[in-house]
Write a structure and sequence with these properties.
alpha+beta, Nuclear Transport Factor 2, Chain: A, 2 domains, 7 helices, 13 strands, globular
């Protein structure tokens, strides 16, 4: 259980800042301690540990974190059972704006960049296993000033998008994509067939890592590795950016855009990018629409029976609530004899273990594409 917010000792440096409002340095320090502890909560050491926050928080935030840390502890156990889990975390917090003070409330926007390290030593890892999973998440941190003048964390509005990173216990955002963000408000086109199987062991990758059917798979994966957090300014960014990112990678690897116009942008047989959202096809940035173009109409991809059949630059899509409307799109950037590693946007995530994804989302339907 978490200790009460009122019982937590406060940083002595806060006393000097109560009158003028908190400094950016103070709030970043408090935010870093909080986010570092959240990341630590899913590591092996936290799997059996009692979680006690070291950060001053409000009473309501304390109640929320009490529930969250129990879920995070359960995730730590699930990850450990899946592939050994994480050995530790490295967290960097960078302010992305100025502190805004309104009476007894202070708000600061920050960017969290975290590495979660593979528990296995280099000697025990399968060849090609990434040293760590990485992600970047924007946060709006809200602080309240207590009667003693000290500032306490009151809320964390994390922009985790369609797939929360590993240390967040929240459920996925199932809000349908809108026209403006590239999705098809009309819903599914039809029956897409069976979802990919998730049981068994990773298969030996028989996919050529060079060029097949005119596509350059290393170029696709290299693009994802380069732009997973450093967004390509040649393309606009959507609120739900996962499929926009995958379309960029496919284009880099040799996919050709089709003809198209404002009047044909809802046509799932078209795939094109324009200077404005209104001149970009739904298939470019909508996960559901991309599926129908890629697999059913253009046949640039075909379905794989198991997620473990995926190879480099293959694409995995998720239907979180099994309603036949795909929510999320990812690309394989590394594959080993023991796992597959996925990279995606919203949130910006690099080399996330397939085994850990399955451990967190056991009820999702998965659609694996051979690109």
């Amino acid at each position: 259980m978490l200790v009460s917010g009122a019982a937590i000792s406060l940083p002595t440096a806060q006393a000097d800042e109560s009158a003028a409002g908190p400094s950016t340095e103070l709030l970043v320090s408090l935010g870093h301690e909080y986010l570092a502890q959240r990341a630590d909560a899913v590591t092996v050491g936290a799997a059996k540990a009692s979680m006690v926050t070291n950060v001053p928080v409000t009473a309501s935030m304390n109640v929320e974190l009490d529930v969250e840390y129990e879920k995070l502890s359960d995730l730590a156990v699930a990850y450990q059972e899946a592939d050994g889990g994480y050995s530790g975390a490295e967290v960097t917090v960078t302010p992305t704006g100025e502190v805004e003070v309104n009476g007894d409330t202070a708000t600061l926007n920050v960017e969290e960049e975290t590495k979660l390290f593979n528990v296995l030593t280099a000697k025990d890892r399968a060849e090609g296993t990434p040293e760590a999973e990485e992600y970047v998440v924007p946060h709006e941190l809200v602080f309240k000033q207590a009667a003693d003048g000290a500032w306490r964390l009151a809320d964390d509005k994390a922009d985790t998008g369609a797939l929360p990173p590993s240390h967040y216990a929240a459920e996925p955002d199932l809000t349908p994509l809108t026209d403006e963000s590239g999705g098809d408000p009309d819903g599914p086109e039809g029956d897409r067939g069976e979802a990919a199987e998730t049981g068994g062991d990773p298969a030996t990758d028989t996919k050529s890592v060079q060029i097949y059917a005119g596509y350059n798979y290393p170029a696709m994966a290299a693009y994802a590795n380069k732009h997973w957090k450093n967004y390509n300014s040649d393309y606009r960014k959507y609120d739900n950016d996962c499929t926009n990112f995958i379309s960029q990678a496919m284009r880099k690897g040799g996919w050709k855009t089709t003809s198209g116009s404002v009047s044909s942008r809802k046509d799932n047989k078209k795939w094109f990018y324009g200077s404005w959202s209104s001149s970009t096809s739904y298939t470019w940035a909508g996960a559901e629409n991309w599926y129908w173009f890629a697999q059913k109409h253009s046949k640039r991809t075909h379905s794989l029976k198991s997620v473990w059949d995926m190879g480099l630059a293959d694409v995995l899509q998720a239907d979180w609530d099994r309603n036949d409307n795909i929510n999320h799109t990812m690309i394989v950037t590394k594959n080993t004899s023991k796992d597959r590693y996925l990279t995606y946007h919203t949130p910006s995530t690099h080399n996330r273990s397939m085994k850990k994804i399955l451990a967190k989302y056991p009820k999702a339907w998965w659609y694996a594409h051979r690109t």
